[in-house]
Amino acid sequence: MTALLKLSGASKKFGGLVAVNNVSFGVEKGESLGLIGPNGAGKTTTFSILMGEHRPDSGSVEFRGQTITKVPTHRRVQMGIARTHQIPRPFGEMDVFENVRVGSMPDSVWRLIAEKEPERDEWEIIKSVGFGEREAGMLPGQLSMGELRKLELARTLAAGPEVLLLDEVFAGLTVGEIAQLTDLLLERKKLGMTYMIVSHDLRSLKPLVDRVIVMSFGSLIAEGEFDDVMADEGVREAYLGQARFDE
Asked: Which domain covers residue 181, as residue numbers?
């Protein structure tokens, strides 16, 4: 089966630092893939390469069988790839609802000024991440970090992506909020959405992914089903002192 989103032989240096070193993997349509590894492993840079925010020094990115290595980020969003960021990036002068509406119209931001009536789909997305009408009218500066992460996810979902890249989406959330977003992602998966998740919260990650890939010092060191990868001695050594795998 041809991968929906594919990275082939990708490498990226920043000065003398090798952030990503000859990394290759693919994500099948409808699959959920975890991308894990210690701090500084190159996970976020890998996401940035997939989104076109960084162009690889070598290697290629393919989407639906088409090479998109040189395609700019906004075009990739139009094609059906979207991501969240570790540090949320909302529009500070817009409230939660307006931020989500902008996410749903990446090519027509200025329609926001003309459209006054709330869109049903946008309200559904806002409610699905746990916001009510009170939060929908709040500015980003009034939100907690956990709420900002939920806003980041809502904005990304509003773009209607076929492939969603989630970077530490659970960081700063309560146990209840994690459970709610887990249910949301599993429901989206049932509807056909493909997603990748970078997360240090391995316990929350496990029920969400079909398989995981592990990076360390910019290289891919393991790939497979969650339990098999967690039993790998090389993975345990890479994570030594940084994570627990036992239930």
From this structure: 5-89+161-240
Cβ neighbours for 129, distance < 8 A, ≥ 6 positions apart: 150, 151, 153, 154, 157, 180, 181, 184
Question: Which CATH number do you get for residue 60?
Answer: 3.40.50.300
Q: pTM for the full model? A: 0.87
Hey, how many other C-beta atoms are within 10 angstroms of the C-beta on 209? 22
Angstrom distance (rounded) from CA 91 to CA 43: 25
pLDDT band at 146 (very low <50, low <70, confident <90, very high): confident
> What whole-number distance in Å separates Cα of residue 75 and Cα of residue 157?
16
The partner residues of 6 in beta bridges, in order of sequence, read 26, 62
Taking 60 as the threshold, does the pLDDT of residue 131 lie above it? yes
| Three-class secondary structure of residue 67 per DSSP | strand
Extract the tokens encoding 228.
């098999």
